[in-house]
Write a structure and sequence with these properties.
mainly alpha
Length: 197
C-alpha cells in the first residue's frame, strides 16, 4: 500500500515594493523584514476587573455580606439550648462557622488589595478562591437544606413548635440560605475568570 507523505515546499519571498524602486533598497528591505519578524508579539490584553471578582469593591461587599449572614446563622442557632440534639443543626453551626472564617479572611485580603491597589487576578489566587468558594457554598447549602428539612418536620409534621425554638431554627436556616446565595456569585465570577484565561 502506498501512503503519501506530507512535504514542505519552500516559496520564494515576495519582494517588498515599499522602499526605493532600485536595486540598492532590496537588502535594506530584507533586513527590515527580518527585524520585523523578531519583534515580540504585543502583550495579552487582561480582562477588565468585573465588580464581584477578587480585589474589587463589589467582591469586598459580597464577602462582607457572606460573613454577616453566616455569622447571624451561627449566632442564632448557637443561642438555642437544644440545637446539639439534632445533627443537621450541628452541621449548620459547623458550616456557618467555616463560612464565617473563609469570608472574613477573603474580605481582609480584598480590603488589602483595594488599599494598595493591587490586582488579585493571578491564576493561583483565583483558583484557590474558586475552590474555597465552591467548597464553602456547597457545605452551607447542604447544611441549610438539612436544617430546613428538620425545621419543617418539627413545625408541620410533629406540631411540636411550642416546646422547641422553631422561630430561631427558621431564622438561622434563612440566614444560611442568604449566606449561600451571596456565595454563589463569588464562585461563579471566579470560575468564569479562570475559564476565560
Amino acid at each position: 500500500m502506498s501512503v503519501s507523505h506530507a512535504s514542505v515546499h519552500p516559496i520564494d519571498e515576495v519582494p517588498n515594493t515599499e522602499g526605493g524602486g532600485g536595486g540598492g533598497g532590496g537588502d535594506q528591505n530584507n533586513n527590515n523584514n527580518n527585524n520585523n519578524n523578531n519583534i515580540n508579539p504585543p502583550p495579552r490584553v487582561r480582562m477588565k476587573d468585573i465588580q464581584g471578582m477578587p480585589g474589587t469593591s463589589g467582591g469586598l461587599c459580597l464577602r462582607v455580606s457572606q460573613f454577616i449572614f453566616a455569622a447571624a446563622a451561627l449566632a442564632i442557632m448557637a443561642s438555642t439550648s437544644d440545637f446539639p440534639s439534632v445533627t443537621a443543626f450541628c452541621y449548620l453551626v459547623a458550616a456557618a462557622g467555616l463560612q464565617c472564617l473563609w469570608s472574613l479572611s477573603l474580605a481582609i485580603i480584598d480590603l488589602y488589595a483595594l488599599l494598595v491597589r493591587r490586582s488579585l487576578q493571578n491564576n493561583r489566587v483565583v483558583s484557590l478562591f474558586t475552590i474555597g468558594d465552591g467548597v464553602t457554598s456547597t457545605l452551607t447549602f447542604a447544611a441549610a437544606c438539612a436544617s430546613a428539612g428538620i425545621t419543617v418536620l418539627i413545625d408541620n409534621d410533629l406540631g411540636s413548635c411550642g416546646q422547641n425554638h422553631c422561630v430561631q431554627f427558621e431564622t438561622a436556616t434563612g440566614m444560611a440560605f442568604i449566606s449561600w446565595f451571596t456565595t454563589v456569585p463569588s464562585f461563579l465570577l471566579n470560575f468564569w475568570s479562570l475559564a476565560s484565561r
